[in-house]
Design goal:
Blueprint (H helix, E strand, L loop, with lengths): L6 H18 L4 E7 L6 E10 L7 E7 L9 H6 L4 H17 L11 E5 L4 E5 L7 H4 L11 H21 L3 H10 L11 H18 L5 H10 L9 E4 L8 E4 L2 E4 L6 E4 H9 L13 H15 L9 H23 L4 H9 L6 H18 L3 H16 L10
Antiparallel strand pairs: 1-2, 2-3, 3-5, 4-5, 6-9, 7-8
Helix pairs in contact: 3-6, 5-10, 7-11, 9-11, 11-13, 13-14
Length: 402
């Protein structure tokens, strides 16, 4: 990371000092800003606390979302179907951190929110330090598989941390909604789903036009029923909203989740399913073995067992996980199968240059395995047909079904 000396960076630091002064009633001096990156309209800085009459950590993190008048909503905002993605994203993130602050430390999913200003779209957070991201730690080998014991331990740790967060927040959507209202926001505490459902409904036409694969009516009907999980209320808990390899960090104190721009409440199984399909919004492939997937499910289930004992029934959980996996694979297809040169450029900049169709082929292969395992042979057959079509249109080495 490089030190920033630009006027804009120093302006953010001065704004953070004023927010801290308003929050704590004292003067805090922040120096030595470093650029930690950020995406889209966000600027993220690490600063040193050089003078403070109150006890603060030696370093803090400042995140400010720039105003984006006239700018289009970012990608995930478009996927979720919200208009001013930057404005809603900031409010959701601020409220998500406030909500997380109310949890016991061991259940808190990410850094602590120290102060914020809604009008300036500015957050001041505790600093987790220079810790590796999930992407840094979990790297598939030359066979495309992530098979080492250390990798498996990290995967189980992520699933366990998700389960711990879900168990601690189950049934607390009204608390989240109250915080939204305090922030003068009229948005729902639930993660938006209408546009995602519409994207799922468009996949059969996309498969037909791009790959020449027909989707039988019974499969379309089944997936429409599976899509109910996007708005399901049986197993709702807090979710960061957009899990990805670069916003999960692996530290000595445990797994932490960053970036809550689309935080809210949804069916907790969707979070677990999104990792099992290798983060559907990314061109990424974890190369999970069936054993690793099973270990992750077991680690997650152990944490939520007392809250949702129904999910101790293998048939109940397997069916719900199949619904989550199916919805994510179909959504990923809607997002990645059409040619999108801007998305590809962003993926390359993020260090994830995997061809979208290779990532999709892996996801459809995983869906085949999951459907076949529970005896849903029609869904498995359709998944295999899509995977074969993707393989034939991709120049990368062929994938084989087990």
């Amino acid at each position: 990371m490089t030190s920033l000396v630009s006027e804009s960076a120093h302006a953010v630091v001065r704004a953070a000092e004023r927010v801290l002064a308003k929050r704590y009633g004292v003067t805090v001096r922040l120096t030595d800003p470093e650029n930690l990156g950020g995406s889209g309209q966000a600027i993220v800085l690490r600063v040193r606390v050089s003078d403070s009459p109150i006890r603060l950590s030696r370093t803090l993190v400042i995140k400010q979302m720039h105003n984006a008048d006239g700018a289009s909503a970012n990608g995930i905002a478009q996927a979720l179907g919200v208009g001013d993605g930057h404005a809603e994203g900031f409010v959701r993130e601020a409220v998500s951190y406030q909500f997380a602050n109310s949890l016991a430390t061991r259940h808190r999913p990410g850094p602590e929110l120290l102060a914020h200003d809604l009008d300036q779209r500015l957050l001041i957070l505790s600093d987790l330090g220079d810790v590796p991201t999930f992407e840094n730690v979990v790297t598939p080998d030359t066979t495309g598989m992530s098979t080492s014991d250390s990798t498996t331990n990290v995967l189980m740790g992520v699933a366990q941390s998700l389960g711990r967060m879900h168990a601690a927040t189950a049934g607390r959507s009204e608390d989240f909604g109250a915080l939204l209202r305090r922030a003068r926001a009229s948005m729902s505490p639930y993660v938006p789903a209408d546009t995602m459902r519409a994207s799922v409904n468009n996949v059969p036409q996309l498969l037909s036009e791009v790959l020449g694969v027909a989707t039988p009516p019974d499969i379309q009907h089944k997936v429409a029923e599976f899509s109910d999980i996007l708005q399901g209320n049986s197993f709702r808990a807090f979710s960061p909203g957009e899990l990805s390899p670069d916003n999960i960090v692996v530290s000595s104190s445990g797994i932490r989740f960053l970036d809550y721009e689309w935080g809210g409440f949804r069916d907790a199984v969707l979070d677990l399913g999104s990792i099992l399909v290798s983060f559907p919004q990314c061109s990424y492939d974890l190369g999970l073995t069936p054993e690793q997937s099973a270990s992750m499910v077991d680690a997650w289930r152990a944490e939520i067992a007392t809250v949702w004992p129904q999910l101790l029934d293998d048939d109940v959980l397997d069916r719900r996980l199949l619904a989550a996996r199916t919805v994510w694979v179909w959504l990923s297809t809607a997002w990645h199968l059409p040619e999108d040169h801007l998305r590809r450029a962003l993926e390359r900049d993020a260090g994830r240059p995997l061809a979208p169709r290779r990532a999709l082929a892996s996801r459809w292969a995983g869906l085949f395995q999951a459907a076949d395992a529970v005896g849903d042979h029609a869904l498995a057959e359709h998944a295999a047909a899509v995977m074969d079509a993707l393989r034939q249109t991709d120049s990368t080495p062929a994938m084989r079904l087990p």
